[in-house]
Specification:
Layout lengths: L13 E2 L4 H10 L4 H5 L6 H12 E2 L9 H10 L4 H15 L11
Antiparallel strand pairs: 1-2
Length: 107
């Protein structure tokens, strides 16, 4: 990710694909609210994002893994921007989404 403050070095964050059963359990643990479901949301955006990042971000070496609460705090405190968190979330989804790729050809 790019540096967020002048003089800060960019930080490299590694994400991993989760086993299929872990991915499915994570989705089931964070169902959308009625309002979100009415908008065709596949999960609860407020709870699923920090849970997915806690599960998918690879922690280097001896560092402690960030918890769901840690990921929430990073966004609320401004230590990471909404854009940075959104990019990480989207990449984590792309790594784990097992939906079939539908290609429609011409003709």
């Amino acid at each position: 990710l790019p540096a967020t403050r002048e003089g800060d070095d960019p930080e490299e964050i590694t994400l991993r694909a989760l086993p299929a059963d872990v991915w499915e359990a994570l989705i089931e643990a964070h169902p959308p609210t009625d309002t979100q479901r009415a908008q065709s949301a596949p999960w609860n955006y407020q709870t699923f994002r920090p849970a997915l990042l806690a599960a998918a971000v690879v922690t280097p070496g001896a560092e402690d893994a960030l918890t769901e609460d840690d990921w929430r705090e990073l966004g609320q405190s401004g230590q990471m921007t909404s854009g940075e968190l959104t990019i990480l979330f989207q990449v984590a989804i792309q790594l784990n989404d097992r939906s079939p790729l539908a290609k429609v050809g011409k003709g």
